[in-house]
Specification:
Elements (H helix, E strand, L loop, with lengths): L4 H4 L3 H13 L3 H14 L5 H13 L3 H9 L10 H13 L3 H13 L6 H14 L2 H13 L7 H13 L3 H14 L6 H13 L6 H17 L6 H13 L3 H10 L9 H13 L3 H15 L9
Helix pairs in contact: 2-3, 2-4, 3-4, 4-5, 4-6, 5-6, 6-7, 6-8, 7-8, 8-9, 8-10, 9-10, 10-11, 10-12, 11-12, 12-13, 12-14, 13-14, 14-15, 14-16, 15-16, 16-17
Length: 305
Protein backbone atom coordinates (compact mmCIF):
# COMPACT_ATOMS: atom_id res chain seq x y z
CA UNK A 1 0.00 0.00 0.00
CA UNK A 2 1.36 3.42 -0.97
CA UNK A 3 2.29 5.90 1.74
CA UNK A 4 0.95 9.34 0.88
CA UNK A 5 3.19 12.33 1.52
CA UNK A 6 0.23 14.31 2.78
CA UNK A 7 -0.02 11.91 5.68
CA UNK A 8 3.55 12.57 6.79
CA UNK A 9 3.98 16.16 5.75
CA UNK A 10 5.51 17.49 2.57
CA UNK A 11 9.04 18.24 3.82
CA UNK A 12 12.04 15.93 4.00
CA UNK A 13 12.41 16.54 7.72
CA UNK A 14 8.86 15.37 8.38
CA UNK A 15 9.31 12.34 6.15
CA UNK A 16 12.57 11.43 7.89
CA UNK A 17 10.84 11.72 11.26
CA UNK A 18 8.14 9.37 9.98
CA UNK A 19 10.77 6.86 8.83
CA UNK A 20 12.34 7.03 12.28
CA UNK A 21 9.01 6.57 14.07
CA UNK A 22 8.07 3.60 11.91
CA UNK A 23 11.41 1.99 12.67
CA UNK A 24 10.97 2.48 16.40
CA UNK A 25 7.58 0.80 16.15
CA UNK A 26 9.19 -2.21 14.51
CA UNK A 27 7.51 -1.41 11.19
CA UNK A 28 10.67 -1.66 9.11
CA UNK A 29 8.82 -2.59 5.91
CA UNK A 30 6.75 0.61 6.02
CA UNK A 31 9.88 2.57 6.87
CA UNK A 32 11.62 1.27 3.76
CA UNK A 33 8.51 1.82 1.67
CA UNK A 34 8.45 5.48 2.65
CA UNK A 35 12.13 5.87 1.78
CA UNK A 36 11.49 4.23 -1.59
CA UNK A 37 8.63 6.64 -2.19
CA UNK A 38 10.89 9.58 -1.42
CA UNK A 39 13.47 8.28 -3.89
CA UNK A 40 10.82 7.99 -6.60
CA UNK A 41 8.74 11.11 -5.99
CA UNK A 42 10.80 13.40 -3.74
CA UNK A 43 11.77 15.24 -1.77
CA UNK A 44 15.17 13.71 -2.43
CA UNK A 45 16.29 11.72 0.67
CA UNK A 46 19.59 12.65 2.29
CA UNK A 47 22.04 10.76 4.50
CA UNK A 48 19.86 11.30 7.56
CA UNK A 49 16.83 9.74 5.88
CA UNK A 50 18.86 6.73 4.74
CA UNK A 51 20.33 6.48 8.23
CA UNK A 52 16.84 6.38 9.74
CA UNK A 53 15.92 3.55 7.37
CA UNK A 54 19.11 1.69 8.30
CA UNK A 55 18.21 2.04 11.98
CA UNK A 56 14.80 0.52 11.18
CA UNK A 57 16.57 -2.41 9.50
CA UNK A 58 18.73 -2.89 12.58
CA UNK A 59 15.73 -2.99 14.91
CA UNK A 60 14.00 -5.41 12.57
CA UNK A 61 17.10 -7.63 12.15
CA UNK A 62 16.95 -7.08 8.39
CA UNK A 63 20.59 -7.56 7.50
CA UNK A 64 20.17 -7.97 3.73
CA UNK A 65 18.00 -4.86 3.51
CA UNK A 66 20.59 -2.90 5.49
CA UNK A 67 23.41 -3.99 3.18
CA UNK A 68 21.32 -3.07 0.16
CA UNK A 69 20.71 0.40 1.59
CA UNK A 70 24.43 0.95 2.08
CA UNK A 71 24.93 0.21 -1.61
CA UNK A 72 22.58 3.10 -2.42
CA UNK A 73 24.82 5.76 -0.89
CA UNK A 74 27.55 6.03 -3.54
CA UNK A 75 25.26 6.30 -6.62
CA UNK A 76 23.43 9.11 -4.83
CA UNK A 77 26.65 10.94 -3.92
CA UNK A 78 25.99 10.35 -0.22
CA UNK A 79 28.64 9.42 2.35
CA UNK A 80 27.55 7.10 5.18
CA UNK A 81 28.74 8.08 8.64
CA UNK A 82 29.55 5.91 11.67
CA UNK A 83 25.87 5.70 12.64
CA UNK A 84 24.92 4.39 9.21
CA UNK A 85 27.67 1.77 9.20
CA UNK A 86 26.88 0.95 12.83
CA UNK A 87 23.22 0.29 12.05
CA UNK A 88 24.23 -2.07 9.24
CA UNK A 89 26.66 -3.90 11.53
CA UNK A 90 23.97 -4.10 14.21
CA UNK A 91 21.48 -5.56 11.73
CA UNK A 92 23.99 -8.25 10.77
CA UNK A 93 24.74 -9.09 14.41
CA UNK A 94 21.06 -9.30 15.33
CA UNK A 95 20.51 -11.58 12.34
CA UNK A 96 23.45 -13.77 13.46
CA UNK A 97 25.25 -12.89 10.21
CA UNK A 98 28.42 -11.95 12.05
CA UNK A 99 30.68 -12.47 9.05
CA UNK A 100 28.87 -9.73 7.11
CA UNK A 101 29.25 -7.30 10.00
CA UNK A 102 33.03 -7.64 9.63
CA UNK A 103 32.73 -6.95 5.90
CA UNK A 104 30.78 -3.77 6.65
CA UNK A 105 33.45 -2.69 9.13
CA UNK A 106 36.14 -3.30 6.53
CA UNK A 107 34.27 -1.10 4.07
CA UNK A 108 33.91 1.53 6.76
CA UNK A 109 37.66 1.57 7.34
CA UNK A 110 38.30 1.82 3.60
CA UNK A 111 35.93 4.79 3.48
CA UNK A 112 37.98 6.47 6.20
CA UNK A 113 35.10 6.69 8.66
CA UNK A 114 36.19 6.54 12.30
CA UNK A 115 34.56 3.96 14.55
CA UNK A 116 32.92 5.02 17.80
CA UNK A 117 32.57 2.99 20.99
CA UNK A 118 29.11 1.75 19.98
CA UNK A 119 30.59 0.30 16.80
CA UNK A 120 33.30 -1.52 18.76
CA UNK A 121 30.70 -2.96 21.10
CA UNK A 122 28.78 -4.37 18.13
CA UNK A 123 31.96 -5.73 16.57
CA UNK A 124 32.84 -7.58 19.78
CA UNK A 125 29.34 -9.10 19.72
CA UNK A 126 30.05 -10.23 16.16
CA UNK A 127 33.39 -11.70 17.25
CA UNK A 128 31.62 -13.58 20.02
CA UNK A 129 29.10 -15.05 17.60
CA UNK A 130 31.92 -16.21 15.36
CA UNK A 131 34.06 -17.57 18.20
CA UNK A 132 36.75 -15.04 17.29
CA UNK A 133 38.10 -14.35 20.76
CA UNK A 134 41.47 -13.15 19.39
CA UNK A 135 39.72 -10.59 17.23
CA UNK A 136 37.60 -9.47 20.17
CA UNK A 137 40.68 -8.82 22.30
CA UNK A 138 42.32 -6.98 19.42
CA UNK A 139 39.39 -4.55 19.44
CA UNK A 140 40.64 -3.28 22.79
CA UNK A 141 43.97 -2.25 21.26
CA UNK A 142 42.27 -0.86 18.15
CA UNK A 143 40.04 1.34 20.27
CA UNK A 144 42.97 2.93 22.04
CA UNK A 145 45.59 3.09 19.30
CA UNK A 146 43.47 3.75 16.21
CA UNK A 147 40.44 5.57 17.55
CA UNK A 148 41.70 7.11 20.78
CA UNK A 149 38.74 5.65 22.66
CA UNK A 150 38.63 4.32 26.20
CA UNK A 151 36.80 1.07 26.82
CA UNK A 152 33.76 1.25 29.07
CA UNK A 153 32.06 -1.33 31.26
CA UNK A 154 29.94 -2.63 28.35
CA UNK A 155 33.06 -3.29 26.26
CA UNK A 156 34.86 -5.08 29.09
CA UNK A 157 31.84 -7.22 29.94
CA UNK A 158 31.46 -8.21 26.28
CA UNK A 159 35.13 -9.18 26.11
CA UNK A 160 34.86 -11.29 29.27
CA UNK A 161 31.77 -13.04 27.94
CA UNK A 162 33.47 -13.69 24.60
CA UNK A 163 36.56 -15.22 26.20
CA UNK A 164 34.49 -17.43 28.50
CA UNK A 165 32.15 -18.65 25.78
CA UNK A 166 35.13 -19.44 23.56
CA UNK A 167 36.72 -21.51 26.34
CA UNK A 168 39.48 -18.96 26.93
CA UNK A 169 38.99 -18.58 30.69
CA UNK A 170 42.70 -17.75 31.34
CA UNK A 171 42.31 -14.77 28.99
CA UNK A 172 39.17 -13.69 30.80
CA UNK A 173 40.88 -13.83 34.18
CA UNK A 174 43.94 -11.99 32.80
CA UNK A 175 41.64 -9.27 31.52
CA UNK A 176 40.51 -8.65 35.10
CA UNK A 177 43.84 -6.99 35.92
CA UNK A 178 43.35 -4.61 32.98
CA UNK A 179 39.83 -3.79 34.13
CA UNK A 180 40.92 -3.09 37.70
CA UNK A 181 43.67 -0.77 36.44
CA UNK A 182 41.06 1.13 34.43
CA UNK A 183 39.19 2.01 37.63
CA UNK A 184 35.91 1.16 39.34
CA UNK A 185 33.87 2.85 36.60
CA UNK A 186 35.04 0.09 34.25
CA UNK A 187 33.26 -2.77 36.02
CA UNK A 188 29.90 -3.58 37.57
CA UNK A 189 28.15 -6.63 39.00
CA UNK A 190 27.82 -8.10 35.49
CA UNK A 191 31.62 -7.99 35.31
CA UNK A 192 31.86 -9.97 38.54
CA UNK A 193 29.33 -12.48 37.23
CA UNK A 194 31.33 -12.93 34.02
CA UNK A 195 34.56 -13.48 35.97
CA UNK A 196 32.94 -16.02 38.29
CA UNK A 197 31.58 -17.77 35.20
CA UNK A 198 35.12 -17.85 33.81
CA UNK A 199 36.34 -19.42 37.05
CA UNK A 200 33.59 -22.02 36.91
CA UNK A 201 34.66 -22.84 33.35
CA UNK A 202 38.21 -23.55 34.51
CA UNK A 203 37.14 -26.81 36.10
CA UNK A 204 39.68 -29.43 37.04
CA UNK A 205 40.50 -31.62 39.99
CA UNK A 206 43.66 -29.66 40.70
CA UNK A 207 41.89 -26.29 40.61
CA UNK A 208 39.02 -26.84 43.04
CA UNK A 209 40.46 -24.70 45.84
CA UNK A 210 41.57 -21.97 43.42
CA UNK A 211 38.11 -21.80 41.87
CA UNK A 212 36.00 -21.47 44.99
CA UNK A 213 38.49 -19.17 46.73
CA UNK A 214 38.53 -16.99 43.63
CA UNK A 215 34.73 -16.89 43.41
CA UNK A 216 34.38 -15.86 47.05
CA UNK A 217 37.12 -13.26 46.59
CA UNK A 218 35.33 -11.78 43.58
CA UNK A 219 32.14 -11.56 45.61
CA UNK A 220 34.04 -9.77 48.36
CA UNK A 221 35.58 -7.34 45.86
CA UNK A 222 32.14 -6.62 44.42
CA UNK A 223 30.87 -5.73 47.88
CA UNK A 224 33.92 -3.55 48.53
CA UNK A 225 33.11 -1.68 45.32
CA UNK A 226 29.57 -1.17 46.68
CA UNK A 227 28.04 -3.38 44.03
CA UNK A 228 24.89 -5.29 44.92
CA UNK A 229 25.07 -9.02 44.11
CA UNK A 230 22.22 -10.42 42.04
CA UNK A 231 20.61 -13.85 42.06
CA UNK A 232 22.97 -14.77 39.21
CA UNK A 233 25.97 -13.75 41.33
CA UNK A 234 24.81 -15.76 44.31
CA UNK A 235 23.90 -18.79 42.19
CA UNK A 236 27.32 -18.80 40.52
CA UNK A 237 29.23 -18.51 43.79
CA UNK A 238 27.04 -21.20 45.32
CA UNK A 239 27.66 -23.47 42.34
CA UNK A 240 31.46 -23.30 42.50
CA UNK A 241 31.43 -23.72 46.28
CA UNK A 242 29.08 -26.65 45.86
CA UNK A 243 31.44 -28.26 43.37
CA UNK A 244 34.28 -27.92 45.89
CA UNK A 245 32.13 -29.39 48.66
CA UNK A 246 32.12 -26.22 50.77
CA UNK A 247 28.58 -26.15 52.09
CA UNK A 248 29.46 -23.63 54.77
CA UNK A 249 30.41 -21.03 52.16
CA UNK A 250 27.15 -21.62 50.31
CA UNK A 251 25.21 -21.13 53.54
CA UNK A 252 27.04 -17.86 54.16
CA UNK A 253 25.99 -16.59 50.74
CA UNK A 254 22.40 -17.65 51.29
CA UNK A 255 22.30 -16.01 54.70
CA UNK A 256 23.40 -12.70 53.17
CA UNK A 257 20.98 -12.73 50.25
CA UNK A 258 18.22 -11.03 52.20
CA UNK A 259 20.33 -7.91 52.63
CA UNK A 260 20.94 -7.92 48.86
CA UNK A 261 17.19 -8.07 48.18
CA UNK A 262 17.23 -11.38 46.35
CA UNK A 263 15.91 -14.77 47.38
CA UNK A 264 17.24 -18.25 46.60
CA UNK A 265 15.48 -20.28 43.94
CA UNK A 266 15.26 -24.05 43.50
CA UNK A 267 18.65 -24.26 41.81
CA UNK A 268 20.30 -22.57 44.78
CA UNK A 269 18.41 -24.78 47.21
CA UNK A 270 19.74 -27.78 45.34
CA UNK A 271 23.27 -26.33 45.35
CA UNK A 272 23.25 -26.02 49.12
CA UNK A 273 21.84 -29.50 49.69
CA UNK A 274 24.41 -31.13 47.41
CA UNK A 275 27.27 -29.06 48.85
CA UNK A 276 26.32 -30.03 52.39
CA UNK A 277 26.07 -33.70 51.49
CA UNK A 278 29.46 -33.68 49.74
CA UNK A 279 31.12 -32.18 52.78
CA UNK A 280 29.41 -34.77 55.00
CA UNK A 281 27.19 -32.21 56.74
CA UNK A 282 24.03 -34.27 56.51
CA UNK A 283 22.32 -32.46 59.35
CA UNK A 284 22.53 -29.13 57.52
CA UNK A 285 21.51 -30.79 54.26
CA UNK A 286 18.33 -32.19 55.79
CA UNK A 287 17.66 -28.90 57.56
CA UNK A 288 17.88 -26.94 54.32
CA UNK A 289 15.77 -29.56 52.54
CA UNK A 290 13.03 -28.92 55.07
CA UNK A 291 13.47 -25.14 54.85
CA UNK A 292 13.24 -25.28 51.06
CA UNK A 293 10.02 -27.28 51.19
CA UNK A 294 8.46 -24.94 53.74
CA UNK A 295 9.39 -21.89 51.67
CA UNK A 296 8.35 -23.15 48.23
CA UNK A 297 5.79 -25.80 49.05
CA UNK A 298 7.41 -27.94 46.36
CA UNK A 299 8.71 -31.46 46.77
CA UNK A 300 12.47 -31.49 45.97
CA UNK A 301 13.40 -33.26 42.76
CA UNK A 302 15.55 -36.38 42.48
CA UNK A 303 18.81 -34.43 42.11
CA UNK A 304 18.36 -32.94 45.60
CA UNK A 305 18.36 -36.43 47.07
Amino acid sequence: MALEHAHFGSGLRQATAAITDLGRQGRWAQSLALLEQLCAEGPKPDKVAFGAALAACERGSQWSKALALLQEFQPRALEPDSKCFGAAVGACVRSLRWEWSLVVFRDMCIAGVAADIIMYSKLISADQLGGLWVGALQRLAQMSLLSGLRADVVIYNSLLSTCTRCGQWPRALALWSVIRTAGEASFNIVTSNALIDALASSHGADRGAVIWHGAVDLLRKALEARLTPTLVTCSQVAAVCQAAGHGQQVQMVLAAMGSWRCAPDRDMDRALIIACSRSGDWSSALSWLQTSFCRTGEVPDQRSF
